[in-house]
Amino acid sequence: MKDFLVAVFYDLNMLWIHALLWLNCSRDIRGLENVPRKGAFILASNHLNNADPPLLTEATPRRIAWMAKMEWFRTPVVGGLFRMAGFLPVRRFEADLQALRKAQEALNTGHVLGMFPEGTRSRSGGLGKGEPGSALIALRSGAPVVPVAIWGTENVKLPRDILRRNHAVISFGKPFTLPRPRRITKQDVLDGTETIMRQIAALLPPPYRGSYADVAAPPVATAAEGEK
Fold this sequence. Notes:
By secondary structure, the chain is α/β, with parallel strands linked by helices. The protein is 37% helix and 18% strand. It is globular and about 50 Å long.
């Protein structure tokens, strides 16, 4: 019943998100064929602006359970809306075991988990160093990761630009899986984080690659190959 109510609330919110974006934002969406239409996966994106989540939500043909910083859930009205939409609170930059369990539960039930591996918005416009949470969840769950890059939102200021025409580009990469070791080590998480971040960087134009501008994305196993 709870999941049904979340789905209804989510769909109702999508109506005003569609309307608002139609009014003030043109979008170039690339690689949509890479987004699985069923089954669990982790959507991992760079993060430039608070406008990114609604843009990515509207562009992705699946309902997303976003992981969002705990501070939002302590904010009047916004916190209640986030909970009703099925968002998952996380304490950033620390080991949040409860958030980890909630994330795995979402994936185990076939949902899409939305994450910003940098852990916060980029202040420079370039991709920042990744935090370990996304890789740890991917390694523990075995869920595919769909990298996605978004740009063009870095100069959007809300509410100033709510009626100003903007343009954003969203590029979805091919889903891939991280190798699953028998026992997850710190090095496995570091390597997985590096892989996820470089896959995102490969989708970004060079000026946005930031900390990952120097080396091309490493080869990865596609989701289909990982299932063999």
